[in-house]
Amino acid sequence: MNKHRKTILTLIIIFYAFLAYSQADNKNYNWFNKDYSTDKVEGVSTEKAYNELLKGKTSHTVIVAVIDGGVDINHEDLKDIIWTNDDEIPENGIDDDNNGYIDDIHGWNFLGNDKGENVKEDNLEVTRIYRNYKDKYAGKTEAEIPESEKKIFEMYKKSEEIYKKDFDEYSTQKSNIETFITNYDFTDKYLKDYFKKDSYSLDELKKIETTDTKFLQVISFQKYVLENKIEISSLNEYLEYLSGMVDYNLNIDFDGRSIVGDNEEIFDGKVYGNNDVKGPTADHGTHVSGIIGAIRNNNIGINGIADNVKIMVVRTVPDGDEHDKDVAKSIIYAVDNGAQIINMSFGKSLSPHKEFVDKAVKYAEEKGVLLIHAAGNDGENNDKGNNFPCDTYLDGTTASNWIEVGASSMNLDKELCADFSNYGIINVDVFAPGVNIYSTLPENTYKAQDGTSMAAPVTTGVATVLKSYFPHLTAVELKEILLKSVTKLEKKTVYMPLSSEEDGVKPSKVKFGQLSVTGGVVNLYNAIKTAQTEYSK
Question: Are 419 and 17 in contact (CB under 8 A)?
Fold first, then answer.
């Protein structure tokens, strides 16, 4: 899901920024629904649109497919908006609607098997490509490769470079963090024994007088921890992330998808997976779903953006990179089962079977289904790099039903562009709120998170409201309206992503209009007005 491919230092910066947002004061927890003119935060004007433009209007239910890592369909703020396949009789073991999927009541899970086993962790795509071709191509030069294999060889060489660099960096950082935590535990216990109590302060440490070298080292270590306000719980959480990268994502001896029992190299009509749409890792998809349509005004949790939506759950993304075949199958499943809009908050840097995904995107385009995709969280220019899936087909043409979304913050200042967000004046269409977005998590919980993974469903929510109140709009028209109705901020000077003031170095600045096609932030109020005046029947 938009895996970071930066240096370890950058990863640490992003990680602690994430923690800061996650632990922030949530007095603005609903900020993405607010309006700048009334609330002084750059939200998408959801409440203003409902109060001033949509009151008393008739809406139609819109089916939105969330292709993600799974959704808690029993969440208190989501259970009433989960799509149900009325043509399927629950848990009778029969494909009642003859769509090829048995008991697909609320969607489908392409990361499981008919025994009920599910994929949790998986490799990154670079790991899979490196593993699959290293025996064949290791040590060879391009001159030794037949013309028919040069594209595959080029992809292998890129994966080899990324894999070796990432494995070394993550392994080193994991070892360093483990050492730091071990030292913390030792020095913390040492000082607690010294003070004969369970806590101590920085002032107390400064008052200790000793010439014992070992004791001075202990004191120095804990002074550093307290002065820099290092949270050991956060460090343990980061270690868990690093361990997942080393043990699963970048482990060439691990193949998480093997339990599915399907050949991912062949795109055929074979059905695989199961109907467990929650799976073992539903945090991300549940958060995404809440942003789109958590039940409004029920005095529970949050208000999603859309007020008449059904969420179709398609589990496709493991704790690792999604497989091209699974993505393609998921899009086709969603289209065939009535989804009108599809949210895709995931991405990766390589796509070995892009032809599979292209086929599915073209199918969605033919059927008039809008695809909304997160731009990525690497602070990179998508015009110069790759973030798959994407709207450009292998033949060079572009999908007309695709919106690529970067992440913005609530601040109409130099920090308007989220410091992690990918951007691109050609390949990123719009920005939308993606910082400190408070939404649903499994087991009836809630939390603030940040990422273009949050910005995409904000855009999806806005598109859903448009489709709901103007059902005649096509996917192409929805895209046209969303892009032309943004809050135009192209002349605003902002910090470049991953640009911060450190060690006296001033952050880089750019006009916001240089970061996307529109130079603006999605706005529901403006979109409704545009639909009313320019696209009404």
Answer: yes
DSSP 8-state class, residue 315: E
| Coil vs helix vs strand at 460 | helix
* Dist. CA 313–CA 69, nearest whole Å: 9
E strands, 95-182, where?
A: 107-109
Tell me the residue type at 400.
Answer: S
User: How far from 419 is each of 371, 380, 401, 522, CA to CA, in Å?
Assistant: 25, 10, 28, 18
Structural domains of the chain ordered from first start: 8-123+263-534 (3.40.50.200), 148-249 (no CATH)
Is pLDDT of 16 > 90?
Answer: no
Helices in 82-149 by DSSP H: which ranges?
A: 125-137
| Assigned token pair, 189 | 């216990």
329-to-269, 335, 342, 356 alpha-carbon distances in Å: 9, 10, 13, 9
Determine the pLDDT at residue 501: 58
The string of pLDDT tens digits covering residues 176-210 is 999 999 999 999 999 999 999 999 999 999 999 99
Tell me the C-alpha to C-alpha distance, in Å, between residue 409 and each of 21, 343, 383, 516, 527.
11, 20, 22, 15, 20
Q: Which residues pair with 312 in a beta bridge?
A: 65
